[in-house]
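User: Structure with zinc ion, C-alpha cells only please.
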Amino acid sequence: MPRSPFVVDIADLEVAGAARPERVVTPVEWILDYGRVAADRPIEAELLLRLVPGGLLVEGVLRIVAEMTCAACLEPYELELSVPIDATYEREPGEDAYALEGTQVDLEQLLRDEALTALPLVPRCEREHPRVVTSEGRGLNGGSSPDESPFAALREIIDRD
Ligand SMILES: [Zn+2]
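Assistant:
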C-alpha cells in the first residue's frame, strides 16, 4: 500500500523542543466549497515540526493554487494562496488540536482545513465588473415614471411567462 504523502514520522523527535523542517509537495484532489485545488498544481507545505510536552507543534506555510468560480461574472479563475499554518497535535486532543497517535502524523486533515478556511466566501476574479444594471429608466414600455413601483418591471417579466 503506498504511503500517503501527508504522513510523516516523528520518531526522530525525542525530547520536547526538538524540531525539524518538513516539506510536503503533492497533487491533491480536494473539492472545496467554492472551487477546487487545481489538479495539475501540487500543493506545497513548508513546515516546522516541533515536539512539545504532550504533542507536536506544526508551523509554517501552505501554498495552493485554487480553481475558483467568480461570484460576479461566473468565469473560472485561478487563485494563488499562501496560508499560514499554526496548529497543534496532542496525545489527548482538546478542542483546537488534532490527534497524535504513535509517531506517525497525518497532515492532510490539517492542511485541507486550512486551505478551506483561507478561500474567500464570495470569490471575485480580478476583472472589472460593471455595476449591475437595473431596469430603472429603461422600462419595457419605453420608459418608466419615477412613481412606478420598483417591482413593475419584474412583474412584467413574470407576466410574460
Ligand atoms: Zn469575475
